[in-house]
Amino acid sequence: MARLKAHREMLDKYLTTDNLPTAWCPGCGCGIVAQALVRAMDGTGIDPDKFAFVTGIGCNGFIPRYFRFNELHVLHGRAPGYATGLKMARPDLTVITIQGDGDLAAIGGNHFIHAARRNIDITTIVSNNFIFGRTGGQYGPTTFYQDRASTAPYGMPERPFDLCRLGEAAGATFVARGTVYGVVRLIDILQKAILHKGFSLVEAITPCPTSYGRRNPEKAGTSGSEMIKWIRENSISLSKANRMRPADIEGKIITGIFAEKNEPECTDEYEKIRQKARAGLSSV
Amino acid sequence: MDNRNVRFIEGNEAVVEGAIAAGVRFFAGYPITPATEIAERMSYRMPQEGGTYLQMEDEIASLSAVIGASVGGVKAMDATSGPGISLKNETLGFAIATEVPCVIVNVQRTGPGIGSVTMAQQDLMQARWGSHGDYTLITMAPASVQECYDLTIRAVNLSERFRIPVILLLDTFLGHLSERVVLDPPLEIITRPKPEVDPEDYLTFDAEGTDIPAMADFGGPYRSKIIGNMHTKAGGYTRDPEIFESLITHWRDKVLSRKAEYTDIERVMLEDARVAVVTWGSTTRSVKKAIRMARAEGIRVGLFRPRTVWPFPEQEISELSESVDHMVVPEMNLGQMLVEVERWSRSRCGIHPVNQVSGEAILPDRILEKIKEVA
Question: Which residues of A touch B73 (CB under 8 A)?
């Protein structure tokens, strides 16, 4: 990992002050994800004009609002659909979606798995804070069993999704999890994901003190710093986890790259279809 | 016969050819009867034209993909039937709020819920008011396979011109009806207005009142912030009441201020008519026969049929109500255009609905009977 560039350099190059102050609460991890992301983008060397963000509804969906990149801020859960259309129509663009755990895995779950199945060259960043933060702390598809939420006052009765396993099973060809504690590692993962040809999923574990921490103080604390400490203490790298017994990694956050493989990519495959069609090769 | 491109094809296929002629190079859809032939034909034709056919995981995703493609600068279309429109309506509202051009075809079926794949005109009000919030869009309803071709070209042009979604209302019958059609190249192809300012000065939504904002494609020197929320001209989030007022009235006024560009009415034998039959879509075919039969019996009756059904031709109906004694309004629904006809004729003439929701065409005899009853 190269030395991090000065914050000021990133600010001048990629960020705008037009929409400040941010929409985020004190202690929120979205700003850390945002900074990791611009640094990763900078590291790819891709022409900034060619980046296109498609964002969902939720606090993380505000991230590109503070960026100087093209942005399409869309309906709840539907970012993969818009991104797929954009990428198919304009394969020259580097399309990045940012979604929350609720946006991606609840209302948008079907779109997510199909984008992964197509292996379309999109990078999806899911900022997972284990809760519906923006709407005030309702439980979501990644809320842990027995956690409290504004709609789970007696504890969460359901089991959570493991988003990386879900993405990998659905066909994503790059799958990784990082945290806002391990930010240097997160930058590295994001850069690899953007440069990967195919559908990339990066899950960024991030704190939501306001909606999650406040309701589960004994678990992760109630401030951003306490929660980041909780993330650090509960994270295990994949290589370490592979040497541990399943019982010992229960409930832990496994970080690392789970999948990285080359498989036929959707826009490339469709270009072959165009060539066939122009050569009159249809059987219809 | 000259060397024009004459074909014998069904309405759904004519829509595909119209779209291609108008420059559509992206289609996303989801299989649904009776619109599936549009998707099937698009999957064959789009790649031939260098375009893209995409079958999405559901109806919502297909319109989402269409909007994504349009943002990338490619003219894009989606097609479905009533149940699909119900699912897409939130996304349609997104295209209104972000002023992204696209065309949505509804090959109507009968009834709410799953309904039935039979002839109907029950989605007229849904086309106008289906999404939440307040907005204005354009809806066109062909009555022949030739019009399926012609009005699809027009729909694409108008969506680009006004930066709005345009809906085409076909029905089960028209989608599957095969007729002679002449596939002439369009007289005009319209493409969305492009920004001419320096990239540094570009604002994503730089329009108010009756203006139509310039639209930059993603990937060029301009940076866009296309957000589906209530927004500032720069694409920033806002809660300013003055901006709300100005933005929502802008979405209406940019369309309503240019009625001459899209108002399209077929008028037949209205000059001396005491009775006007006001109808739309496929029912027009039965009405024309009924009018010929009534004229043969000496009844002074004519046809008033908007091809552009939304915005409704309010002024024209108002004027018509002053020149005739009665209007007969046949529709394959329980009275949807009727509401507008009653509203704009302001009780100046008799209004006589002929409604049928059996999933079968209203036959000319039934319309003739009503004409004779009121004449």
Answer: 89-90
Does the beta-carbon distance from B219 to A111 stay under 8 Å? no
* Cα B339 to Cα B95, B133, B267, B319, B368, distances in angstroms: 27, 21, 20, 17, 22
pLDDT tens digits along B54-81? 999 999 999 999 999 999 999 999 999 9
Identify the band that residue B334 occupies on the pLDDT scale cut at 50, 70 and 90. Answer: very high
Complex prediction ipTM: 0.96
pLDDT at B58: 98
Q: Between vectors from CA B66 to CA B62 and to CA B72, what angle results, nearest 5°?
A: 145
Q: Give the closest residue to B142 by CA, choosing from B90, B115, B184, B105.
A: B105
CB A253 within 8 A of CB A240: no
Residue B38 domain-assigned (yes or no): yes
Tokens of A61: 């969906």
Please state the domain extents for chain A: 7-278
Q: What is the pLDDT of residue A283?
A: 60
State whether B223 and A18 contact (CB < 8 Å).
no
Query: Looking at the structure, do residues B134 and B37 belong to the same domain, yes or no?
Result: yes
CATH class of the domain whose range is A7-278: alpha beta
Number of domains in chain B: 2
On whether residue B48 sits in a domain, the answer given is yes
Same domain, B310 and B177: no
Residue B231, in any domain of the structure: no
Residues of chain A neighbouring B57 (CB-CB closer than 8 A) = 110-111, 114
Residue A284: pLDDT above 80? Answer: no
The nearest CA of chain A is from the CA of B195 a distance in Å of 15
Please give the structure tokens belonging to residue B304: 């008033």
Question: How many interface pairs between A and B have CB atoms less than 8 angstroms apart?
Answer: 143
Closest-CA residue of chain B to A49: B219
Does B191 reside within a domain? Answer: no
CATH number for the domain that contains residue B129: 3.40.50.970
H or E segment to which residue B304 belongs? strand B301-306
A7-11, B45-49, B138-142, B324-328: segment of lowest average pLDDT: A7-11
pLDDT tens for B153-206 read 999 999 999 999 999 999 999 999 999 999 999 999 999 999 999 999 999 999
**Does the distance separating the beta carbons of A82 and B68 come in below 8 Å?**
yes
Question: Which of B61, B226, B235 faces A81 most closely, judged by CB atoms?
Answer: B61
Residues spanned by the domain of B317: 265-374
The answer to whether residue B235 neighbours chain A at the CB level (below 8 Å) is yes
